[in-house]
Design brief:
alpha+beta, Alpha-Beta Plaits, three-stranded antiparallel sheet, 1 helix, about 25% helix
Length: about 70
């Protein structure tokens, strides 16, 4: 198992991740990770970025990877 920390930011670090936008963004991230078999250990949605600390197995099939 591997763990990684990822920070995602909107273009120009715009302060748009509030209210329903933050809720929907978190849902999309959690859904995508669940589909790929990635376990989210911790996630924080801030107004201008998202921190994700996650765990995954090595050798994710190419059909599920970012190709």
């Amino acid at each position: 198992m591997l763990t990684d920390h990822l920070v995602i930011t909107p273009k120009y670090r715009g302060k748009i991740l509030i209210g329903e936008v933050a809720f929907v963004a978190e849902g999309i991230i959690r859904g995508t990770c669940a589909e790929m078999g990635i376990k989210i250990i911790d996630m924080a949605v801030n107004i201008d970025h998202v921190h994700i600390f996650f765990q995954y197995e090595t050798g994710i099939p190419a059909s599920q990877g970012l190709v």
